[in-house]
Amino acid sequence: MRHVYSGKVREIYSDGADLLLVASDRVSVYDVVLPTPIPDKGALLTQLSVWWFDRLTDVVPNHLVSATDVPDEFAGRAVRCRRLEMVPFECIARGYLAGSGLREYLATGAISGVPLPPGLVEGSRLPEPIFTPTTKVSDGGHDAPATFDEVADAVGTELAGRLRELTLEVYRRGAERASANGIIVADTKLEFGRDADGELVLADEVLTPDSSRFWPADEWVPGRAQHAFDKQFVRDWAAGTGWDKKPPGPEIPADVVAATRTRYVEAYEKITGSHWRR
Ligand SMILES: CCOC(=O)Cn1cc(-c2ncnc(N)c2C#N)cn1
Asked: What is the dihedral of CA 63, 64, 70, 75, to 10 degrees?
């Protein structure tokens, strides 16, 4: 097994013909990974993603080989997946205005080249979900918006159209199931690859609070920053410490760790409808 990639809170290992996608218990706020782990976060998000993958196979095949055939040290928080030729774009669907999409809208009236009506505010629900891809920048900075035409120039119009169609369909399915259980999925980021036959395959993680914005539906108020379903306790505590939001971040107190773990358990149980096993 060989380590091949580190994300903020996840790792990729090469294991023979396959890859191992390993989720840590680390949490990142304001783009800074905090030093205190959230127990079971990696397992909860991995199992939520596996739950989504299994229910989306009628929409798109996925890269999972196994959710159990992983090294003991990673048990429950890793998946074995097949190696793909990754599409070099983050495939983002947005149903609400937030983050970089909000900033781009306020500056240009559009997001990734998709025009939006005037007068929308932070947290506004969009008239319909939109496909707003970005390119992965290598310097670890923020990804840059990509228009549909840029995607089409890179991968061909047909494949670009499929990426948009699949991204929006996965988002719709996720947003529908989540909102029926009190969670707004404001946006989500998907990654696709192509297998040896050139087929599009859904990769990475799917509809987790790390790859998406999860908001508690009963606290949604357009016109201000929304509360993050999972990370709000950490954000609020961090704001109260006077931390300058630069690395290294401060240790998270035990009560905030416990409350945050509970939020990940709640997200898992609300969406899957089943009790967390531990
Ligand atoms: C740390 C998580 O990885 C990423 O963020 C992006 N990434 C995905 C791959 C990948 N590469 C080949 N095949 C795959 N199945 C995958 C997947 N997933 C590489 N980087």
From this structure: 120
